[in-house]
Amino acid sequence: MLRVAVVDDEEAARELYSALARDWARRRGVEAEVVAFASAEQLLFSLDDAACDVVLLDIEMPGLDGMGLARELRSRGERVQIVFVTGIIDHALDGYDVDAVSYLLKPVRAEKLDAALDRALDRVGREEPVLVVESAGETSRVPLTRICFLEARGHDTLVILADGARLVSTRGIAQLEAELSRMSGLFLKTHRSYLVNLPHVRRITRRDVEMDTCDVLPIARGRWEELNRAWLVWCRGTLA
Predict the structure, then answer these.
(1) Cβ-count burial of 177 within 10 angstroms (0-12 exposed, 13-18 middle, 19+ buried)?
(2) Burial class (CB in 10 A: 0-12, 13-18, 19+), 219
(3) Are 67 and 91 in contact (CB under 8 A)?
(4) DSSP character for 185?
(5) 3-class SS at 183?
(6) 100-120 average pLDDT score
(7) Tally of CB atoms within 10 A around 204
(8) pTM of the model
(9) For residues 82 and 101, is the Cβ–Cβ distance under 8 A?
(10) Is 153 helix (H, G, I), strand (E, B) or coil?
């Protein structure tokens, strides 16, 4: 049975999105239990008894807010599918850091929520794609969502993570680019020495791109138009 949690400090919102989730499950023929929580802390306490598969999550709440809850869930290793349902747009790009399915702005139309729940259901139980980083003496499996950008360093490649950690791969950037392109369409070259993960791009000009780590990377001549267009498409998609 699919277990869907609705976390919102407003009672009317909890009732509305719980009803919409139940209606979605009925129409899709999915056996689902929908449970509502008035705070992030209530949901965390409940996880000792039963895990959740999908959570519809508000962001602005007293105490631990929705983004904080999402980060806590990920730090615990919870693979719950997160759908943000919120009245503020400010944290839309932060949703990628916690591997959110969708970021929906209130008031949410039923068809938008249906589409988000369809995507969440498709991802339930699916393994998150990882990049295997082989360095001298050790091998690491890094989720793609944690990778900010890659930088060529001679025959090696520096893999920079969103939290600022840096790993050295003994494989060249061209080999890693080919592998990443098979798993995700979100990695693009800005320059022959740099490969960026679009969701971790903070700002783009015609000359450079600023990443979430505050690193500023050059954009080669002729690369700006494709990079800027792809980033805008991704940004619009997160707000669908």
Answers:
(1) middle
(2) buried
(3) yes
(4) S
(5) helix
(6) 90
(7) 18
(8) 0.61
(9) yes
(10) strand
